[in-house]
Every structure is written in C-alpha cells, then in structure tokens.
Amino acid sequence: MNSLDNLQDKLSLELMAELSNHTGAVSLPRLGKRLGVRQSSLLRCIAYLGEQSMGQHQGAGWVRLEQDGERSMLSLTEAGRQVCKEMKAPADQDAAVSTGVIQHQVQRVSFHGQASIAVLDQVAEEVPVALVYNGISHAAMLATPLNLEDFALGFSLSEAIVDDPSEIYEIECISSADVHGIEVQMRISAARFAALKERRRSLAGNTGCGLCGKESLQALPMQLPVIKSALVEQLSPASLYKAMQALNAQQVINSQTGAVHAAAWVDMQGLILALREDVGRHNALDKLLGTLASARVIHKASEPGFLLMSSRISYELVQKAARANIAILAALSAPTSLAIDLAVQAGICLTGFVREHGFVVYSHPERLQAE
C-alpha cells in the first residue's frame, strides 16, 4: 500500500493529520480524546495503517505502535510523514507563518491642511490565547502569536502552576478555523494539576474585585520569595547603559509597529542574550522566562545577568522576577508604588527611567557598582 488513494477513510485521514502535528509519539488515550473516538476504533484504524500484516493484507506501514511502560504510543513512520506532506493542500502549503505584524489600510491625516493619504501600515498582531492544563482552560489573554510555547512555560513557572519545567510533559499549540484564537494545551503532572484545581476551588464563589484580572483579593500574593543568591554580582552603570542603547535595535516587531513591549535578559557586561516581544508586557516577560527555562540561551542560574524591560514596572512583573530568582530589574519607564514595595521585600534592585542621561534606583542600590 503506497498510494494516497488508500486513505479514503475519514478517521484514517484525521489520524494521520493529527500525528503529523507531533514530532514524537502520542498516547492512544490522547489521540482518542483529540479525535473524539473510542480506542477500539483507533486500533482498527491502526491495524489498517500500521506495519503489521493482517492475514493476507499487508499494513500500509505509515504508523508505528509501541509500548512505553503501560502506555500505548503511536507515531508516524518516515513513510507516513512523506504521505502527510503529499496530503497537504496547496492552500496549506502557501499559508503564511505569523510574524507578529500584519498590514492594514489606513488614512494618514495632517493637522496642517494637507490632504489625507491612503497607505498600508504595519500593525502589531493580537489574538486571544487560552492556556489549557490537562484539558481545563485556566487563563485566556490577548497576545502576540509568537513564541507561545515559551509563553506557556514561562507563565506556568511565574504563576507557580509548576515549580520546574520537568512537571510539564507536553505543550501543543492548536488553532482552529472555527474559533478565532489559539489554544496552548499543556499536560502537567498529576500533583501539580491537583494543586491547580484546589487553587481554583478555593476562589470559587468569591466576588471578583477586578484587580488586574485576579478573581479575588485572596488571589493577590503579597509575600514573595527573597532572592536566594547571597552573593550577587554588582551591575555597572556602563553595562546598563550599553544594554539600554542596544534594546531598540533588537525590537523587530516594535520597530515596525510601535505597539509592543520587550523583555530582555542581559549579561553583566551589557550584552543582550535573549529578547521577547508581545503586546502585553506580562506576556513578554513570561515568554522570556520560558526561553530561559528551556535552556536555549545561557541560563540565568549559571551566568549572572539582569532583566531589562521596555515598559513600566507593575507589581506583577516584580512578582514574576522574584519567582525566577532575578536580582536586578531595570526598565525604561517608571515602577508603581506596589512594585517598589515588593522589590524591597524580595531583595530586588529596581531601577527605572533608564535613559541617555541616567536612571533612578528605587530599591537595593547595593546591587549596583558605585560610580
């Protein structure tokens, strides 16, 4: 069996398409849930598409069923992946990958009497993103549709849903033509999911106060972990100035749209090691924290560094920095009073108004080198 003509069964098509979205093997229960079918139906389909012979019928050899302990795991063979490439419609092949920027027809109008001009403008893309844990939607927000796996990991860590990346077993981004938005589906450990459900249960029935999206005042933690490092390398003003000067050039989306925030991880010499952008400043920081936690850049735990934000600093950003054990947080704009209070409590050096002429230190100046 080597022809697409053999893939006439709807379930076979759906199963192959679903497996093509994964680089590794997927458990049968998860596949059944995703496709909305019983495992018995899946097994019949696997027998048809698999590598084994059934009497005189030779399987297609497109999927491979293996055991991982007690779990049955299914994956595409190389032949199966080739078939999936052939299955893709031209429209799918030509689909554009999101860059975070879209074009929009606008009218440019002058205050000085000139006629308005119709032009194409670059606009920051913003879409609803839902974070789903073990099938339960926990949070939905508007975000730039880039680096969403980093976003999910960073959010999970900074909101204390998990304590370590190893407690997240799987992250999958799913978009649907039927629903405007993206679901980021995560599978986390049973212990962490139980703790998440208990947290949600403890807030049920409370009157929402509308405070920064929290469900109640009980959801606003005011006690933060203190920075663990007893000896933190001091940051020189020259390194901070170097990073500030380099920040704009690395904000690719903002340079086109002027509408997004940036969060950057910088070494103590002022070199920007990683930067993430988003329409939301909290999202930008979560994306950066996810990048650092996934060890795609020099990890903050092994190399000293500091956090540089293009936005104002609210208490949530200080909270996320404290949970990530980041000792120095700098920003081009100002902090709020609560952000300063929490930075003092957590042992974070908080600096704001980082500009060409200098900066303002709000807490723990001992983490900076004297001029």
From TrEMBL:
Keywords: Cytoplasm, Molybdenum cofactor biosynthesis. GO terms for molecular function: sulfur carrier activity; sulfurtransferase activity. Pfam families: FdhD-NarQ. GO terms for cellular component: cytoplasm. The keyword Glycoprotein does not apply. It is found in: Cytoplasm. The keyword Cytoplasm applies. The active site is at C209 (cysteine persulfide intermediate). GO terms for biological process: Mo-molybdopterin cofactor biosynthetic process. Belongs to the FdhD family. Required for formate dehydrogenase (FDH) activity. Acts as a sulfur carrier protein that transfers sulfur from IscS to the molybdenum cofactor prior to its insertion into FDH. This is Sulfur carrier protein FdhD. It comes from Undibacterium pigrum. The gene is fdhD.
